[in-house]
Fold this sequence. Notes:
Number of helices: 11
CATH architecture of the largest domain: 3-Layer(bba) Sandwich
Helix content: 25-40%
Structural class: alpha/beta
Number of strands: 25
Radius of gyration: 22 Å
Distance between the termini: 45 Å
Shape: globular
CATH topology of the largest domain: FAD/NAD(P)-binding domain
Strand content: 25-35%
CATH superfamily of the largest domain: FAD/NAD(P)-binding domain
Number of domains: 3
Amino acid sequence: MTVNSVTIVGGGMAGFTVAKELRSRGFTGGVTIIDPAGAPYDRPPLSKDYLLGKRDHTEIQLAADHWFEDQGITIVTGKAASLKPDAGTVVLEDGREVTADRVVLATGGTARRLPIPGGDLDSVLELRTKEDADRLRAMLKPGARLAIIGAGLIGAEVASSALPFGADVVLIDPVDPPLVPAVGHELANRLHSMHPERGIDVVTGTPTAITAGADGKHHIELASGETITADAVLVGIGIVPETALAESAGLETDNGTIVDESQRTAHPRVYAVGDSSRIRLADGTLLRRAEHWEHAMNTGATAAAALLEQELPKHGASWFWSDRHGVHVEGVGSMVGEGTVIVREKDGEPSVVFRLDPDGFLAGCAAVDGGLAVRAARRIIDRRIPVDPAQLADPAIDLKKLAR
Length: 404
């Protein structure tokens, strides 16, 4: 069947990339993006520059309004309610229908709620949209106490961003230190220690209940018996993939909409990309679902190529980034698994951490303010270039030389 039109449900990075790649790859047919927020915008700034007021809503759009007009891409503002895969029809909550030859699900995810009493209170905040960031910003006032449950990437970023407002911050997580699977134990310790150094209260504990008093104060009970009182509570413990649309169409889901390596579901007219998709390899292996910004772009590019029956792009080892307290964190590959950990220090602190697999090849790398090192590590991982562990540990050795 010739593809003359594509509907993309979801205006995040993954959905936007599908549209952009379709046009850059020469597709001249109809392209429609459906999203409740209208024009696609970038999510990472929500916990940083947008929350801080350094960038407004127009400055975080993934493209200017005229770009969509110039590219002939239609934006439909609305929420998809169901999908009829055989017809390629997306039904919106208000009854409107959008039909195309192919449908791409880029539905992302919803904030994971705490499964405890009070975890579903309307006054307990999350951070997934511009409106969420606006609501949080309004509460960040001098002397206001913000409790953040979850000290992962988002929690740490918000904790850092809240300080310039003069807010008091308490950061709660059951793990000490968080982020070990992402950056290794040495860097995780360094990053987590930045919070108390800057006046943030760090509490290792598990919330068991949240109550809201008539005075607007929130009381967070911990398993230890301690109670933490705060004016506002933000929960940042990950997302739940949004698969309701896929399920309405009878598509297979398992912590994500199941797709093959071309991002196609079991139905030939439907693809899925980004946070809500999960790849099953040809041998039946079900990969872990990924949520990183670059993964959204990569899956979007793959789906666009597959839709046009072009050669699928090759992507390198997975990569992520984050910012907190004025430092930039990056990681590539996997820091989880058997093997050898090698630490490169700078000024007496761990700066770059590497993981070699049991065969001695580089499998993962994470760094603080070390973007060039991470890029070199990615090349080494992708090309399986043999490296000397002693040279990895030596800060005098330029990693770019090892990547040649």
